[in-house]
Design brief:
CATH architecture of the largest domain: 3-Layer(bba) Sandwich
Number of strands: 40
Radius of gyration: 38 Å
Largest sheet: 7 strands, mixed
Structural class: alpha+beta
């Protein structure tokens, strides 16, 4: 929400500067993002008046103007098409430096001397209309400083409001807030009822009262189509970030900014029959104001006549019924829509409008007639016309009612740690326009209709704290006994895991828990995905079932910035509907790409491969002494390379997956190099063995190496498991140190070189014992895998 400091000061004369108001607002929970001047310095720019216009003797497009505004009349050569006698426009006098850096000096244009410059809006930084000179009202005092005349010594506050503070999406709401904060009275403009001078009106039918229980319409006939929006109104719109679109639309936008009530104006001659507020029907199509043709879903609310849709309720009007330069009669619309009906519909269509922004959060249900009266008075003042009677359709059963909330003074002071009296608390609530009924230290509070966020006692306590000032609340240490629970030695903490990964060169990322359904489908991870009831966008429509989409998005951003090598990790929750209902496991995600080490003269660069990723996981599990037997088995995940994918099992239970991303997926994601990723169940890798002392052994170990030929269908992990089982307690370690395929080995087979390290804790092993153990191992391998010793 953008608000002019001058405009706000007209409502509340607090005596505070823009900077002071910004500080007060921020401390009260209305965060001010920025404070900006409404215009650049315009020293030397005055109101000029064109006294005479003659054609340039040597240029058809130039005109020679006699202009008053400086200390004397001056000749100025101008190329604007709207330069004419009697026009008042900004005049940059000699010596003036314009915002673009141009310094005004005496010049000759095609042989004619020019002593100054008549300016357009963009040249002054006051707008975007570059078609001609900026036209000022006829009563603008010639020679007056433009900054003084337009009140450009002003600032715009941009306020970042939380969704619950829809009441502050207007000057009226912010004025009430400033009044409460500064304890200054509100001087709101007087809004009188405009008596009808025409009998014409339209019938209004509420066919979906639960979606729209209150709809107000008013006809205004005989509007002057040549009327122009006054400068004061266009300036206020500009300072709020809106551009002028004609007097009727400008007035509806002005009322939206001033009172917080979105409005719309229809061309009355387009409406057939009357107004019907209803849900969309199957197959209906119409074109919005932005030119987009839509087929609204059946859960969308429409404003329609008796033949076709006119507008998407609460979001955007239709193109066919829009006010144009030929419009002479209009229907003003002001309504209250159920926020649940409007919420999310605009985003579904890729739209973002000021109206939808307010209706989604909730508009004051008592504001509709007042807004129509305010808009009517402004339209009559600017464009004339004959207003008809105000016609309203209302269903009180579906309108929100003011709820009474009880507040206890002792509870208030207990929560805030304060010592406020009943009078102080009541005064703060009354400054917020709340109705307070007191019974000693007990209050019954009714919030104004605009404050739909006040529902429970804690809300009132928060309001008192905001206005009293968080900085004024006492600082006290909590009392009572604090019981510290020591973490189990067998549990690996997330912090320790993060520190270990960071030490190994990984960088932590934190990605959104919301992802697009298309991203999950592309990865084959959409099964069980939980859709959001009110998604922020299509790209954030479901809860993630894996950390991989976020890691890949981060990898893509890094590659687009020419970062060649990086290692990322994330610890976070995933969400899916499983066999046991909704599950929310915490997982560890890893991603590697690029070179193993930085480029250096001492060694040849090598790209990361599958074994680097597997080694990182093995190192992590080994270093932390993870409890359980660890094994890697062939993985068949669709998003991984079929020849470089594995599943991690701990004690026979699936604990995660790892491997190279499928080349087709890498190409689709526009990644230009191999990517390796893994995702592990955090609970499975967080339980470790209790550290215990074990004698390294006084007796020497014996190593025997075997080279066995086995079929490719058997993973090396299965062979190692068989050796461990057959060797018994004397096997201290078992490693694969070579793999060979090629000459002398049959196709579909490979030779595994395996080292067995044997030791007895009580004595030195004899050769005959070792030979017997090895024979038993070989026999077991031959029996299980049809393995052969390689000669």
């Amino acid at each position: 929400m953008k608000i002019s400091h001058r405009w706000l000061s007209e409502w509340v004369d607090s005596g505070l500067s823009a900077e002071a108001i910004a500080e007060r607002f921020t401390l009260a929970g209305l965060e001010v993002d920025s404070i900006e001047s409404v215009a650049p310095p315009l020293d030397g720019v005055v109101v000029g008046e064109i006294l005479a216009v003659e054609p340039h003797p040597d240029a058809d497009r130039l005109r020679v103007c006699r202009v008053a505004g400086d200390s004397e009349e001056r000749t100025i050569v101008c190329g604007a098409a709207n330069a004419r006698k009697g026009l008042k426009a900004p005049l940059a006098t000699l010596g003036t430096k314009l915002p673009g850096g141009l310094k005004i000096k005496p010049a000759k244009l095609r042989g004619v001397a020019s002593e100054g410059m008549l300016c357009s809006e963009p040249e002054l930084g006051l707008g975007e209309d570059a078609d001609g000179l900026m036209e000022l009202p006829d009563d603008a005092p010639t020679g007056t400083s433009l900054s003084e005349y337009l009140g450009l010594d002003d600032h715009v506050l941009e306020i970042d409001l939380t969704p619950n503070r829809a009441d502050c999406l207007s000057v009226r709401g912010l004025a009430r807030e400033l009044s409460a904060i500064s304890d200054s009275p509100v001087s709101s403009p007087r809004i009188d009822r405009v008596a009808p001078s025409s009998d014409r009106d339209v019938d209004i039918e509420l066919l979906a009262p639960e979606d729209c229980p209150h709809y107000v319409g008013r006809v205004i006939e005989d509007i002057d189509p040549e009327a122009r929006t006054p400068l004061w109104l266009t300036e206020r719109l500009r300072r709020a970030g809106l551009r002028s679109l004609g007097p009727i639309i400008d007035v509806t936008n002005y009322v939206l900014l001033e009172l917080g009530q979105p409005m719309h104006a229809f061309d009355l001659d387009i409406i057939k029959g009357g107004i019907r507020v209803r849900r969309a029907e199957s197959g209906e199509k119409f074109t919005l104001l932005d030119g987009q043709e839509i087929e609204p879903d059946r859960d969308m609310l429409l404003i329609a006549d008796h033949e076709c849709p006119l507008a998407l309720a609460g979001i955007m009007g239709g193109l066919d019924s829009a006010v144009s330069e030929q419009t002479r009669s209009i229907l003003l619309e002001s309504a209250w829509f159920n926020p649940a009906t409007i919420s999310g519909r605009a985003r579904r269509l890729g739209l973002a409008t000021e109206s939808a922004h307010r209706f989604e959060r909730g508009v004051d249900p008592a504001l509709q007639e007042l807004a129509v009266e305010r808009a009517t008075a402004l339209i009559l003042e600017i464009a004339g016309g004959r207003p008809g009677p105000v016609r309203a359709a209302r269903d009180d059963a579906h309108l929100p009612t003011a709820e009474t909330v009880e507040l206890r003074l002792d509870r208030l002071n207990h929560v805030l740690g304060s010592a406020l009296t009943a009078d102080e608390a009541a005064a703060i609530l009354e400054r917020l326009s709340m109705r307070v009924e007191r019974s000693q230290d007990h209050f019954r509070v009714t919030a104004p209709s605009a404050r739909r966020d006040i529902a429970i006692e804690a809300d009132l306590i928060e309001e008192v704290a905001r206005i009293y000032g968080y900085d004024r609340l006492p600082v006290r240490h909590p009392g009572g006994e604090i019981i510290v629970k020591a973490p189990a030695e067998t549990l690996l903490s997330d912090r320790a895991l993060r520190e270990q990964l960071a030490a190994r060169g990984f960088q932590e990322v934190m990605t959104w828990s919301f992802v697009g359904e298309r991203e999950l489908e592309m990865l084959g991870m959409a099964d069980g995905a939980q859709p959001l009831a009110n998604p922020l966008s299509r790209e954030m429509a479901v809860l993630r079932t894996s950390l991989l989409p976020g890691l890949l998005a981060a990898a893509g951003r890094n590659r687009r910035r020419q970062i060649a090598a990086f290692r990322l990790f994330e610890i976070g929750h995933c969400f899916f509907n499983g066999k046991n209902g909704f599950e929310e496991p915490e997982r560890l995600g890893l991603l590697l790409t690029g070179a193993v080490v930085a480029e250096h003269f001492s060694a040849k660069s090598r790209a990361v491969d599958y074994y680097d990723l597997k080694g990182e996981i093995e190192s992590l599990l080994s270093f932390n002494g993870i409890a359980g037997r660890v094994s890697f088995e062939r993985g068949r995940q669709s998003w991984l390379h079929p020849g470089q994918a594995a599943e991690l099992h701990i004690d026979g239970r699936l604990a995660g997956w790892l491997g190279q991303l499928h080349p087709a997926l890498v190409e689709e994601l526009e990644l230009d190099q191999a990517v390796f990723a893994a995702e592990l169940d955090l609970a499975a890798i967080s339980t470790r063995r209790l550290p215990e002392h074990r004698d390294s052994g006084r007796f020497p170990a014996v190593r025997r190496d075997l080279a066995v030929v086995v079929s490719d269908e058997y993973p090396a992990s299965a062979v190692l498991d068989a050796i461990v089982e057959a060797s018994g307690q004397r096997l201290e370690d078992c490693i694969v140190f070579d793999e060979y395929r090629g000459k002398g080995i049959e196709t579909g087979f490979r030779s595994l070189a395996i080292g067995l390290i044997l030791r007895d804790v009580s004595r030195t092993l004899e050769d005959r014992e070792v030979d017997g153990l090895i024979r038993g191992v070989v026999a077991d391998l031959e029996n299980r895998f049809d393995a052969k010793l390689r000669g």
